[in-house]
Amino acid sequence: MLILVANLGSTSFKYRLFRMDEDGGEVVAKGGYERVDDYAAVIDDALATLQRDGVISSPAEIDAVGFKTVLGKNLSGCVIADQAVIDALEGFAAVAPAHNPPYANGIRQFAKSLPKAELVALFETAFYQWTSQASANYAIPKTWRDIGIRRYGFHGASHKFVAERSAELCGREDVAQIARRLYLDGPQSVSGKPFRVISCHLGGSSSVTGILNGVAIGTSMGFSPQSGLPQNNRVGDLDSGAIPYAMRTLGIPLDEAERQLTKESGLLGLSGVSNDIRDVRQAADSGNKDAQLALDCLVHSIRHWIGAFMIELGGIDALVFTAGIGENNPALRAAVCQGLEGFGICADPAKNAACRATECDIASDDSPAAILVIPANEELVLAREVFRKLS
Fold this sequence. Notes:
This protein is of the alpha/beta class and about 400 residues long. The chain has 2 domains: about 1-120, ATPase, nucleotide binding domain (Nucleotidyltransferase, domain 5, 2-Layer Sandwich); about 155-375, ATPase, nucleotide binding domain (Nucleotidyltransferase, domain 5). It is about 40% helix and about 15% strand. The chain is built from 17 helices and 12 strands. The strands form 2 sheets. It has a 6-stranded mixed β-sheet with strand order 3-2-1-4-6-5, with helices on both faces. A hairpin with a 2-residue loop joins β2 (about 15-20) and β3 (about 25-35). The chain is globular, with a radius of gyration of 21 Å. The termini are close together.
């Protein structure tokens, strides 16, 4: 089965074409466009490029298109991308303005460009369908809950890949099988010792998720992608009382407060230097105290959520770092793990320093818990789930 995975941003379009079967799959082509202002044109150009390069003889050969949709109103899971999905995306467009409108438009365009292909949406919230009511709900009035305000969680495809791959690497094929088939079968019981994972997806957008036997029990992100850890230029967690106070004191309207919290906060707001952690690190190493504060706040927040989930899980068998920062920043990984030996998290400095953008275990030989670096592979997760959905 030929499955095109479409990654749609507010001004970008990236794709990977997978050939999938029961034994797995492989990437047969990939490409992308930046500064997009006409999705119809770039989608048609991508299909024409695949044909011109001999990857396909006709766009009609593509069996399905998978969309890594973010947040739907009253809808989650792995579902056929029909009008109900478009309505769900548009229903929460104000909550995820950088993600939902491009995906709604992309689904419409692919329906025109590939009329015979199956369109499938895998919502980022899908991995958190089975978290407890206590974990999912805020202490807000029922009228607020009734309009859909709750903790949804994001980066679901990335954390699901971690759930599968960490179990494989730790010799827990029973848990890996549960994690692979989670969206088809739901959570399954495990005979024997539970497998407890804390997954740290650290990139331009970051989150920490607790995983028990392949199933998420909770996550640092909440109602919107603006929450949880400090993001690249988004605030992360913030006391709700700070917003009306800032508006009154600074004399700014709600739209401007929202803009500052989503565009000028996070690592950028703390450091005053950049929203790129590499620039922030360089400034900190040169003595910039604000840049160092940004790094310290990020590490503090990661450790806060690791501690929270360690209690919820009753211990830890594997701590995982994934995504751009998690895979490529030994200094940050060392700071996160510092002083956690008493909790069974013992990193090996040499292994950690040597590990960049590759799969490895950076734990010391006597560490009770594995400390894994697992490169993110959200596109593969999406291709697998589309194949399973249609099979």
